[in-house]
Amino acid sequence: MSTEPNSTASAASTIAEDPVKVNNASVTDLKNACDDALKRVLDREGQFKQQHRHIDVRLGLGYANTVIAVGSSLYGWKYDFETAKPVVWVGVILYVLLSAAQTLYTWFIEKDTVYVGKRKTFAKRVESERITIASRTVPHAPSPLAGTPAITNAPSYSLTLSYVRTSGGGKTLIRRSNLADQVQSYSAFFEDDGTLDEVKYSAWVEELVKKVVGEEDGSTKVE
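RE: above sequence
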């Protein structure tokens, strides 16, 4: 995946002026910093446009729960207990069902997904590309980046990428590929004081994206 010079310069400037620094004793902070940096890499000009379906669904369910809770409470406050009881019970049941739906959606549909992006390319035909990336923390990395000392059992960052390219409004499949469990130790990307080396991290992510979209040979499975 080629990167526009202006985009690269802008990213480098942002990194220099506003470095990301976290508590490197917190695996959650390390993962969140990497997830946020991943979105910045892929959202650069000329790359993918992030889709927010998962966030929209969770927010929609959350807002619906809030409306039901507030509405039931106001109804119970306005009317006497016996009159309000059926409505309040309905509100409680709906609240529980929506809360369960939100939890199930997160567990079984969204899972570890941190980025979904789309873009269109125009050549002899209009082609649509969709990339989905999931991240998680694993106990340790099998091999750190070159020049980075190995740390036994150090927590590591794992990415799984899937990519689909279609044309004709999704009717014709051009490429489908996956890269599973691409792992690097957090120590490969963070300094001792918790500062993220965003240049090194961005280079790693861009290399993985090149592989999954087919811009270089690799272990990508193409169907």
